[in-house]
Amino acid sequence: MQSQHIVSAYDEELQFLARKIAAIGGHAERMVDQAVSALVNADTALAVKVVEADAFLDEAEREIDDRAIIIIAKRQPVAADLREIIGAIRISADLERVGDLGKNVAKRVVAVSQSRQPVSLFRGLEALAELALTQLKEVLDVYASRSVERIEFVRDRDNEIDAMYTSLFRELLTYMMEDPRNITPCTHLLFCAKNIERIGDHATNIAETIYYVVTGNQMPPERPKQDKSHHVTLGETK
Question: pTM for this structure?
């Protein structure tokens, strides 16, 4: 947060945006964690709870947008203050999308639970989710502390997520080739894995936004933004 303003209400308005970002960030984390738990344990009741929880994020994002517009119109911010407000809008959009991805996983719980798959596949999904959620937690900590020196490390972690997703993609294809009965549930698991992998991309987007908010500069666009699953062929899975 920037230095205090002469009008204390202005500081309170900016602090509201920061508190709201922290709240929706924690909510998005819980949604993803619960969605993966529901998937692994075939817990349809928990899956329904996750889907219903998405309404909070939708409303919170709209509230941040509305508040930001009012602040801009009333205070006419410039420089760091303007970046702070625009950053809040962008970060809330990424967090809302993380919640959507968690909801998408939860929606597939019923279909996957109808035919249980090997435990190793669920362990792979759990490991992928743990890595993605760790990255999201780290970037939210950076937002709270404004420790921009940690941002590059957070952004680089996305490569680990992509590599793990590609490995899981290959494993799922193998099961589908071995038994046609696995095609439907494994297809649902592929979508779940992709949703989790995308969470890492949104966390990286947030890291880049924070860097811009704090420094006023854009991070170099050097990090790869895609996984390697498009290189996987049927021959490689054997």
Answer: 0.87
